[in-house]
Amino acid sequence: MKGILLQLTLFMALIPLCRVTAQGCLMTPEMIVSDPPFNPANLEFSKMPLDRCLTIYAETDYFTYLAFGGDKAAVANWLKAIYEQVALIYAAENVTISLASYYIPDTSGGWSDGLSAIDLMYQFGGVVKEEANGRVKMFITRRILGGGNAWQNELCMNSRPANVVNYTGGYRGPYAVCGNMTAHVTPISESDFSWNIQVVSHELGHVIGLKHTHSCSYGPNFDMAVDNCYTQQGGSCDVITPVENSTIMSYCHFTSLGISFEAGFGTYPGNQLRAAIMNASCLVMDEMAILTGELNGIIAADSIILSDVQATNLILKANTLTIETGELYATFEVMNSGCQ
Ligand SMILES: [Zn+2]
Question: Are 290 and 6 in contact (CB under 8 A)?
């Protein structure tokens, strides 16, 4: 996304933008013909600017507060730093995420000692405030839990009883738990792997809908694995060639290959990630795109305003409005981004 924006910025310097207030050169989205209908399956996702913002609510615990010496500001800075880096991982996939709000308890109580990641996930869903600002609710803790947990493919689901034996009161929904967090947040520019950034990126990937890369759920027919780093899940299947190791939804950190942030989510998981965001009915596209000049490709925003556009092959997604006319090049500016 950064690369695209930079490129577009350079291009925009040559063509003056038409602002909303400039009368006489605007075309409203209503004037765009919605034909053919928007079909995400036909998109070339790697070139699609995604303007949908996925917001996160992060909650930590008293244990973590104490682990930072009772310094609430330090915990807040830690959470922000984590999501800043996770946002970079997602930005590399053209997905925008933002830490919308967080909660740091500074009094004891809440969670008992000795709970596992899955215990916490069930219970967290039952007590996290529905009105908490952020679509995905993540419990982030310094407790040693052995890893993390998430409800898979629950991005747009509402909280509901988990119906799991022995977990009466357990709830499921867009919830994840990330344990074993450490105090230091290493920028991805300084290290190609760190636990804090990996576990949050990985569990968030699950909530959005991604399975592990050693599961038989990738490839053109969703029946192949991406790598061999762990025992296959979902049956026995072929591995996609070329094998993409070390991606974020993998268990390659259990092998000598490790996980590399540079590898990102990989081709198929990345495409599924973008498709899931694009199809997520709960994510409101509240941005406005002001477009001018020669446009190319696919542009998504809630409100798109065009000015002196010349295009012969353009799809605009503005509340499912689509236009296709032909040629290439694009310049646009996204205003009022839902992500801060
Ligand atoms: Zn996982």
Answer: no
C-alpha pair distances (Å), 123 with each of 99, 164, 176, 201: 22, 12, 11, 21
Distance CA 233, CA 238 (A): 12
Sign of CA dihedral 99, 83, 264, 328: positive
CA 1, distance to chain mean position in Å, is: 13
Asked if 201 and 140 touch (Cβ cutoff 8 Å), the reply is no
Task: Kindly give the distance from the C-alpha atom of residue 202 to the centroid of ligand 1, in angstroms, as a whole number.
Answer: 6
Closest CA to 35 of 321, 273, 235, 272: 321
Q: Does the pLDDT value for residue 205 go beyond 50? A: yes
Please calculate the CA angle 275-281-282 and round it to the nearest 5 degrees. Answer: 115
| Three-state DSSP class for residue 262 | helix
- What is the distance in A from the centroid of ligand 1 to the CA of 113? 23
Ligand 1 mean position, distance from CA 206 (Å)? 7
pLDDT in tens, 28-63: 222 223 233 333 333 333 333 445 678 899 999 999
Backbone φ and ψ of 247, nearest 5°: -85, 170
CA of 63 to the centre of ligand 1 (A): 24
Q: Separation of 178 CA from ligand 1 center, angstroms?
A: 11
Strands 136-140, 53-59: parallel, antiparallel or unpaired by DSSP? parallel
pTM value?
A: 0.73
DSSP state of 318: B
Closest to 16 (Cα-Cα) out of 258, 253, 292: 292
